[in-house]
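Format notes (please read before filing issues)

Several people have asked whether sequences and structure tokens are stored in separate files. They are not. Every record keeps both together, in the order shown below: the sequence lines, then the token lines. Line labels are part of the format and must not be stripped during preprocessing.
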Amino acid sequence: MKGLYIHIPFCKNICSYCDFPKMVSSDCIKTKYVSKLIKEISSYKKHFKEIDTVFIGGGTPNSLSLELLEKIFISIDDVLKNSKESTIELNPELITYDLCALLKKYNFTRVSLGIESIKEETIKLINRSHNKKMVIDSIKLLKDFGINNINCDFIFGFPYEDMNDIKNNLDFIKSLDITHVSYYSLILEDKTVFKYQYDKGLLKLPDDDLVADMYYYIKKELENMGYHHYEISNFAKNGYYSLHNLKYWNCIEYIGCGLAAAGYLSEIRYENCSKMKDYLENDIVIIDSIKIENIDKKKEFMMMGLRLVDGVSQNKYFELFKNDLLTDFKDEIERLLKKDIIEINGDKIKIKPDKLFLANVAFREFV
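Then the structure lines:
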């Protein structure tokens, strides 16, 4: 079964660290975008019966009006009715009673809240608008509508952040009674406010050792709270893994719709145009596509699979490729074993628990 990703590129504010395709835009542009998006979605209608997970991300999907959101939901109503998991990303300060009612009406089973931090100075620095009360109130409202599968996104390694800030975030998470936590390390991306400020010497980031300490502290404390660490940055209560994201990590096909969205369908990787004018005016929005050759599938299987804490399965590799993993990647595996980055435990090859923060060293072997 496939996944469906839908990108909403609009935001109320632009976050200082974000390099995802996004913009602050007029109601007119939003209306035109949704119309074109629905047209693109309909072009994949023949695949609807093969889709069992939906993820609407951004940007900030709930920066759209309820009327525009409902138009999108109607266009995929058959998928939503039959999906195992349908997720939408939301900003807590924009969650209302009517929005929750709309999500319930269209069978959304999962919400991902963009929190990032509860430190007031950091929230201001990253140009976000929420506070702790808004987060608490939004989660209560979602639960009142029976939407109990809730993820909260956090980021560590923000400028001027210390271990005490991490402890405060984790104490807050503990108080929320949520099913899933995504806790990412800050990456300075090109063409972001933070990257510009850092290059100009205007930002002070925690040093690498402190950031590594933060990661392992987060891991330990979330596990103590009953969350299972199943992917480098993702933690879930029992039975609440992100089914949609697991498709990415297990190299399962998915459809991507919207500005700059990417997809993997019929062994073709494709990417949509990233300029709004081109997306709205052109009949064909895909600007790049490539057939994935067998060697690239194998490398991707390794890179994505090693993101999972349980690692990659040699048996699954043989089932997919009719080859022995340890033979195909003999040199790469030997180098990583020598560096003490990975371990082989029966069928599984995985990054060692105390080396997860160095995962990129392993990934580079399979680029």
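For reference, the curators noted about this record: The two ends are 27 Å apart (CA to CA). The longest strand covers residues 51-58.
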